[in-house]
Description:
The chain is built from one helix and no strands. It is an all-alpha fold. It has a domain at 36-73. It is rod-shaped and about 105 Å long. The mean pLDDT is 80.
Amino acid sequence: MTSISPRPAQDAESPAANDNRRDSHGDLSFLDLINSDEEVAATARRAERLGHVVLALIALCLIVAPAIYLASLYL
């Protein structure tokens, strides 16, 4: 008995468009692109230190700028 299929048989020379063979994905690993926890923690520490420095500079400017303005009014 011959089976009739709407899909043609695939030969070895023309692989499917979604080629999922293991040998073709040898050096493609998206897990290598994800940062490790240590790198993320180091980046967070640097960002936190930078935030503290910026906050201190803003506070200093908010104190010094009005003081300079008031001093210039009375000179």
